[in-house]
Amino acid sequence: MRSLLLDLDGTLATTANVHKEAWEIALKRLGIRVEVNLDLLMGRKTLDIARVLGGDRYLELYNLKNEIYDELVGTKAFPLPCARELVKDARELGYSVAVVTSSLRRSAMRSLQAIGIEPDILVAGDDVERGKPDPLPVLTALRRLGSKPEKSIGVGDTVYDFQAFKGAGVAYVFIIKGELNLDNSSLVDQGGILVESPCDVDRFIRSVVFQ
Fold it and tell me: Which keywords does this Swiss-Prot/TrEMBL entry list (predicted)?
């Protein structure tokens, strides 16, 4: 069985920046000052980010950030170009579709509902012991789909997505430009395929031949 493995935030939905905004608001409300580029943390598990930013107040920060995200996502989450079409076309071509995200399940469900996408399965950050860049979330999705990595396509927008997909042995790994200010050009030398949007992946799946 062929499978399409999709990151969510910044890959299917305009929610990478919503998460970033929620972190910024939470940090400000708690009076926590950090000298960290938040763009470089997006794509990791929520609890892991909270530990980096919050120090001994990480649980307080974690809970507040999640509350703020829930308030923001309903009005700020939109599908990226061709996101819905990619999922629809993949299914018509016989792919099973999984969303593999570092976000909490509750946040991911809200985001997916907001953009009108329903995958076959969802693997969220709180479903697994280790999040991206560890391959465990991807391997979990493949196992649940009954699919093999060599018959799979991975799509994300960060180096953490790339490392998780590659670590799981996924055949083709696309990294889209997304919303974040990231330079992913070095991933090309490691086998990544850089594209502008899900539209490029939608064209690719129509002609791909797996070995």
Answer: Hydrolase
Which tokens go with 203?
A: 């064209």
How far apart CA 176 and CA 83 sit, in angstroms, is 12
| Tokens describing residue 83 | 């996101």
Same domain, 56 and 83: no
Is-contact 53 27, C-beta < 8 A? yes
**How many domains are there within the chain?**
2
Distances (CA, A) of 129 to 45, 57, 98, 126, 146: 10, 22, 18, 7, 20
User: Per-residue confidence at 180, pLDDT binned at 50, 70, 90?
Assistant: confident
Please state whether the predicted TM-score (pTM) of the whole model is above 0.85.
yes
Whether 61 is in a domain gets the answer yes
- pLDDT per residue as tens digits for the range 73-90: 999 999 999 999 999 999
Same domain (yes/no): 101, 128: yes
- Sheet containing 121-123, strands listed edge to edge, beginning at the edge strand earlier in sequence: 121-123, 96-100, 3-6, 152-156, 172-176, 193-195
11: nearest Cα among 95, 115, 151: 115
Q: How many CB atoms lie within 10 A of CB 40?
A: 14
CA-CA-CA-CA dihedral for 42, 55, 164, 102, to nearest 10: -60
Instruction: Please give the structure tokens belonging to residue 113.
Output: 């509902």
In a domain, 211, yes or no: no
Domain that holds residue 34: 16-76
**CB pairs under 8 A, 24+ apart, for 62-67?**
64/26, 64/29, 64/30, 65/22, 65/23, 65/26, 66/22, 66/104, 66/106, 66/107
